[in-house]
Amino acid sequence: MSNSRISSQENHVFVPKTVTKTIVISVVLLFIVSVLSLAFGSRFVTWNELMTGLFYPEQDSYGASVVRERIPRTVFALFCGAALGVSGALMQAITRNPIADPSILGVNTGAALFVVSGLAFFNISTASEYIWFAIAGAMLTAIFVYAIGSLGRTGATPLKLVLAGAATSAALSSLVSAVLIPRTDVMDQFRFWQVGSLGSASWNAILTFLPFLIAGVILAICTAPALNALALGDDLAKSQGVQLTTLRIFSAFAGVVLCAVATALAGPIGFIGLLATHLVRLLLGPDLRIVIPMAAIAGAVVLTFADVVGRVIGSPGELEVGVVTALIGAPLLIYLAIKLKVRSL
Amino acid sequence: MTTNSLITIKHGRQKRQRRWLLVNFLLIITAMVLCVAMLLLGNTFHHPADVFRALTGETVEGVSFAVNNIRFPRMLAGLLAGIAFGIAGNTFQTMLRNPLANPEILGITAGSSVAALFCILILQTSQAVTSFSAVIAGLLTVIVIYFLSRSGAFSIGRLILVGIGIQAMLSAVISYLLMVGGHQDLPSALRWLSGSLNGVQMNSLAPLVLVVMIFLPIIVFLGRHLQLLELGEQAAISLGLRTDLTRILLIVSSVCMIAFATSVTGPIAFVAFLAGPIAKRIAGVGYSNVLPAGLVGANLVLAADLIGQFAFDVRFPVGIITGILGAHSCFIY
């Protein structure tokens, strides 16, 4: 009986009106940030130039070619944001911890360290090699942080996970500097391995990135109903017939791969997962079947917007997007910490 | 029966005391050996007698300059910064009852760095003003973290989480300041970001010497109280400790030590993080961990600097070596 009540409540969320409204709003937002990302930067582009750049490939003007240069960057920002958003949502669901995000748990830094080591010691050069190294690094770091965080009697509490992540991340980023410092000639080029940036976007990178993004998001959406059950606690989830180990492995795999590919090409960008997931949860409730796909959209919007802000503030250069997301995201982390109940620490 | 157990307790106590004394003694010896090594080694090896004569004021051809102007300040900076970082880190770890909680991760170091960078890059103030504002900013950061984590019920966990958030934000501000800052000021700004003992001048060391001499005794004196704080808020109060006062004194002293040490050497990664747990492991429990932590810190910095100077083809700054050490020890945890 209670079961039927739960499911009817869950169905309540799927009222077509809400879904339509949400989809319309997301499409509008995505459109707005994309236009902003094409128009703003160290040089502002007029509407005419924007239109020429987008729709009249035969005409050439300075503004139009600026717009064309900005297209891959914008697409890349949208995809990266989506990957990081979903990854954050998954990590929060798996660890049942509102303060989880690839950067807070140090997974991003692990991926960055592996890519940097690959560049320095194994001469990797293609985007797909970056991605495989990043996945390996992210995987190892995730396992390691979870292992440290769940030491002791109380198991993996949010506090212990976050602390383990912060400490690991600090240690790994000094390793990144240790790899980079003797190679000052390439240091400038690889500065974005310490603070994430979208400056290296290219169509080639996007194409390599895309299959991983699609596979990760599909896997995430498939695990969402079971993750909903996991939110009730291990025992209740098990009694609902959820295979806990399988679920954890698959969803963690999806989460780690998603943030690893984003890091492989853009460096460690923080807090997108945290921001996106909490934004969505605030507006649409905690049902992961909605939160996960919407976190992708919210992540894309937030990251692209942060990138625009970074380019405008940093003009004529650019302020790395990782810096901007930290400036927006860290206050949210503090707010969540203040709101968190003492018991759950 | 009771006499027997009393004897056992007494015996154990003596054993722990002997161990504590022995460990401190050994740490002092190794620190001295490392100090001497830092004076003797360099681009050229100098004979101990020459070094000694140079230090006592005689002019020795080719030795005096290297020893008095380069190696001695370097050695002293490493020693003092190591002590300061070790003790401050240990104080925070003990007070917050978590080995992972240290000034670096809680954003206190970052707070000092932001203020220092702002002074150097934007206001272009003198070194004294820079150090002073770094201390103030460090204290302000602690106050902000403390008050933010007080809303609702105070808990150490909340304080740590808030600290991590503050740290992330301040690091972002640091990146921004570095981008805005002029290129000519960058070298002195970078000193605040990556630990290095290169080019330490004797006259910039004076404030650090003073600060360590003032606050080291205070923290050592409060060592017993720190041990009580470690038992938890309620236990400490019921044992008659004025917890708020003790905490404030400890925090102010630690932050001053860190800020001044950072102004000379930059934040040497992971010394504050490692010194406490290492000291605890070798010196055992039961006695104040303050002195051993300071000594371990000094040993770490000196040894790491020697390794950084001579072990590789490239000269690594000391912060990178301690960072690598820290990373490894993370894996051992």
Q: Per DSSP, what share of the residues of chain A sits in E-state strands of 2 or more residues?
A: under 5%
Return Rg of chain B in Å.
21 Å
Series of H and E elements of chain B: HHHHHHHHHHHHHH
Q: Estimate the global geometry of chain B from the Cα principal axes.
A: globular
Computed over alpha carbons, the radius of gyration of chain A is 20 Å
Task: Give the H and E element order of chain A.
Answer: HHHHHHHHHHHHHH
| Count of DSSP strands of chain A | 0
- Overall geometry of chain A: globular
The quaternary organization reads as heterodimer
Instruction: Give the termini separation of chain A.
Output: 34 Å
Number of strands of chain B: 0
Low-confidence stretches of chain A: 1-13
Largest sheet of chain B: none
Give a structural overview.
The complex is a heterodimer of chains A (345) and B (333). Chain A is mainly alpha-helical. Chain A is built from 14 helices and no strands. Chain A has helices at 2-13, 16-39, 47-55, 62-95, 107-121, 127-149, 158-180, 184-187, 203-230, 234-239, 244-266, 272-284, 288-313, 321-339. With 333 residues, chain B is an all-alpha fold. Chain B is 76% helix and 0% strand. The mean pLDDT of chain B is 82. The interface between A and B is large, with 46 and 44 residues.
Topology (elements, then pairings):
The complex is a heterodimer of chains A (345) and B (333).
Chain A: H1 2-13, H2 16-39, H3 47-55, H4 62-95, H5 107-121, H6 127-149, H7 158-180, H8 184-187, H9 203-230, H10 234-239, H11 244-266, H12 272-284, H13 288-313, H14 321-339
Helix pairs in contact in A: 2-4, 2-13, 3-4, 4-9, 4-11, 4-12, 4-13, 5-6, 5-7, 5-11, 6-7, 6-11, 9-11, 9-13, 12-13, 13-14
Chain B: H1 2-40, H2 48-55, H3 64-95, H4 108-123, H5 127-148, H6 156-180, H7 186-190, H8 202-221, H9 223-230, H10 233-238, H11 243-265, H12 271-283, H13 290-310, H14 318-332
